[in-house]
Amino acid sequence: MKLYILSGASRGMGLAMASQLLAVDHLVLGISRRQNAELQQQADAAGCPLLQWPMDLADPLPAAQALQDWLTGQDPQRFSHACLINNAGVVTPPGPIDRVPLAELSSALRVGLEATVLLSSAFLAATRGWAADKRLLNISSGLGRRAMAGSAPYCAAKAGMDNFSRAVALDEEGRAAGARVVSLAPGIIDTDMQAQLRSGDPSGFPDQMRFAAFKREGQLDSPAQAAAKVLRYLTRADFGSTVLGDVRDA
Predict the structure, then answer these.
(1) Is the pTM of this model over 0.85?
(2) How many CB atoms lie within 10 A of CB 102?
(3) DSSP assignments along 194-243, one per residue
(4) What is the pLDDT of residues 232-242, one digit of tens each?
């Protein structure tokens, strides 16, 4: 059996990935603020194993501890593959950081970066003795690799995710049966996050018109299309050979 652990699995591309991963020989574990009833119905109808943990990753420590405890309790021989996909992310209202409430800034960085670090640590620690093919996939963004006005918290979280991934990959290279690590830019996707960006105030978000044009000109992938591209990348034989990846490079 293959194990897929996925944060932010209740909506958007995360929900699409969870849906596409459902299979009788896959155990999908979603960690999100709320469960998705339609996803559960899909799993039940197809006889596919699914766990949904309703946990708020703005407070990531309980989720990471729960994941480590659960993984530690599993039979190390149960899974031939084990994968953690850190997908959860939050965009603050577009604009300079001094216009964003401090609590919202804190929450965005906890979800986008701290949760990634803690869940990754829990996953790697609990599966250290497993012989399974282990993969760590962090869903990054082009904004982690180039700055954009009005989006500093998101840029910071994704840039941190990228360099975190590079450092963890170096750690795993020196370990027997180490995990392979990729921080992947998934392209531009028609999600609530994109809607928030294209509805931003141009006075604080100069790229607002550019994001509106993405939608108007049909340049956005649907969540299902983006999920399929990400999951194809995840199955590549050379996964991990390039730590900072982009689905458009496939």
Answers:
(1) yes
(2) 8
(3) HHHHHTS-TTT-TTHHHHHHHHHTT-PBPHHHHHHHHHHHHT-TTTTSSS
(4) 999 999 999 99
Q: Are 61 and 118 in contact (CB under 8 A)?
A: yes
CA distance 132 to 226: 27
**3-state secondary structure at position 135:** strand
Burial of 40 (0-12, 13-18, 19+ CB in 10 A): middle
Q: 3-class DSSP state for residue 164?
A: helix
pLDDT of 244: 97
Q: Which of 4, 79, 130, 154 is catalytic?
A: 154
Max CA distance (Å), the chain: 56
Q: Are 149 and 100 in contact (CB under 8 A)?
A: no
Q: Give the whole-angstrom CA distance, residue 207 versus residue 17.
A: 28
* Known active-site residue 233: no
